[in-house]
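Handout, section B. The chain below has 384 residues.
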Amino acid sequence: MDLTVGAIPFYFGSMGAEHLYLKRRAERTGAPAPTDYERRDTLASLAMGVGSLVVPMALDRVLSPLTPGRGRWGKVLVGAALGAAAITTAADVAIRRGTPAVDDTPGTAPEASVPAPRRERRRRAAELGRRVVASAAVTSVAAGVTAGATTWASRTAIRRLWERRPGGRDLGTGALATVGAILAWDAIYYWNHRLMHESRLMWAIHVVHHSSERYNLSTALRQPVADAFGMFVPVGAMALLGFRPALIETARGVNLLYQFWIHTDAIPKLGRLEEVLNTPSHHRVHHGSNPQYLDRNHGSILIVWDRLFGTFAREEEPVRYGLTKNIDTFNPLRIATHEHADILRDVAHAEDWPDRLGFVFRGPGWAYARHAERHEPQPLAGVS
């Protein structure tokens, strides 16, 4: 049985107990807190939790035929990506050639030196380029990301790598193998979690979990629904080491169950355990939008990964929960898609490939800095 499904009664029982505790605390102190339950926020989190179970199954059915090397439409998807990229590049060239020279930069022909018929042809080509470049760029990026993500997921699937493990290595199902699988999953999780904060494509998936301005156990259920469009460090690598697929699934369940209880303000700091484990205090930092808390404490069970790789921060000042630019909605569809929509909008408005790819693959902070450089309005969603 899936451990996370079997724990559903525990989830709701814990949330009920926490809600009662927080309500009494607010009555005692006379001060509401951002960790208190709010009906619309809690319903949005529960809706995203249900969506995280249902949407991936639907996406798998939709994307399976489009997966290069697996589905019958895979080549069509790749062809669409390449064709749209070629159209975008041609449009870029046409736009540049049709833009009148405004300076004396060496190699730039003064506008007056170009014959009028040629100038007119360039002008018309540039006009056509401006009409098609945005849609072509969005098509190329969307198709390319879909092709890349589905291919990567297919090639690194746990069962596939298990069948290709060197020497038929099998670590069995004993206690040592189980502990090893949990530790291996935890290490891979750290890097994937960190990647989801440092690449905007991955952040668009993960931002769902940070979108609430409240923080309680219901926040743990506010999970992403669009993992199919991400490119992750593959947990299938564990199979190559000899961990059985069923044991890997157990490690996943243990990891998710552990993460549930750390989404609370009701538990204070835990003394020496803070040095080794990811605790509620450390995870409150992770959900903070305070500048010193951004992109910190990515670990799941262990905090030692953050200590080793320079992403650790202690909880010192009160935490401001949410995003640096909050989206102010309880609509699950908007919560799930707002950053993807912003990325596609940025790609449509970008003027060259370095910016288009930067808006997709570089960090969220880079995207907003680039907006400032170009004096453009920034997206509704922010980094956290």
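Note. The chain has 15 helices and no strands. Compare this with the example in section A.
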